[in-house]
Amino acid sequence: MLAQYHQGQTTVERLLALLCGLGIQISKRQLVRLLTAGIEGFAAEADAVLAAGLASARWISVDDTGARHAGANQTCTQIGNDRFAWFATRPSKSRANFLELLQAGSPGWRINEAALDYMRERRLSPGRIAALRRGGEIAFDDREAWNAYAAGLGIRATGGPLDPLRLATEGASWGALAARGLLQDTVIVSDGAGQFDVGIHARCWVHAERLIHALDIFNDHKRAAKERIRRRLWWLYADLRAWQRNPSPQRRRALAARFDALFTTRTGFVTLDRLLARLHADRDDLLRVLDHPGIPLHTNGSENDIRACVTRRKLSGGTHSDDGRQARDAMLSLMKTCRKLGISFWQYLGDRLGVDAAQPVPPLADIVRQTAPA
Q1: How many domains is the chain built from?
Q2: Could you give the CA distance from residue 73 to residue 67 in angstroms, rounded to a whole number?
Q3: pLDDT tens digits for 301-315?
Q4: CA distance 272 to 32
Q5: How far apart are CA 107 and CA 180, in angstroms?
Q6: Which residue stretches of 6-142 are H helix?
Q7: Tens digit of pLDDT for each residue in 138-184?
């Protein structure tokens, strides 16, 4: 039933009809209970996979999509690379939420030098940073305790882009990640959404080009200008991929110069010129590959992974209980990770459920660590 529902992406109603057709007497309530109850072990293994992946990854790619839970709109976030995948559905899609998800099921908030450096970079006021520094290195495992501590230092929510509590909370989450040795040299590749812009960040070239492709054109002159820019962009993209296979300092400088020439071009098409200027402002993120040749230039892997969430949403709508949400996220994480590691999800389920004669499957987190690049 687990394999048919999660890997086969069937609905509960169709699965129930199949089971009844095979002569199995079972109610819909009992079927749902079997699909969602006792999922704690699977959820713990999914979180262990994320922790192992983040500790050993040179890069990860991330994406998110809408999800429904308990009758409300939420967001399902994907984190992974070519060795693992992990999913979580939460009410928020903020940067603070993303940093909390990166802690692999063990959220915490810690004030240390990494946290203070993050707050300085995000322009938290020097007075509040000094107050946090005077309190010394301190860690919290409970959000309410952290909020109370921050309030005691006069750090409260004010709203706006420089909300002190939000910036301090993000910094404390980053400090907790640093204390666990996660994401210190890992590149985060995203579609450019602001919530993913933490640590060493790279931007997807495909999403950048889509902005140009989507421009509305009303005459032949503007159409020609747009197509010339797109051709130059894809030419540069192809050469960046070729450079990844054989990096050289001389070629690196030439590619950086071509990037500047492309995105400072003035075509006379005002909307296109403004877009090129905005993309040029993201130069560091788009050219991150020149410092980290092993990262992908796109987020195609994340988009492929998260497509299963979209399919499930179209088939079944949303989840109703917290157990159902946890079961869907955990099973999708484990199923996608098995596929990337070349492991049969059927055999994995058989081993974890103690089925007789099932082939043993080691903990997936161990395999993720063992397959990490040297």
Answers
A1: 3
A2: 6
A3: 999 999 999 998 988
A4: 52
A5: 11
A6: 12-21, 28-36, 40-56, 95-101, 113-121, 126-134
A7: 999 999 999 999 999 999 999 888 999 999 999 999 999 999 888 88
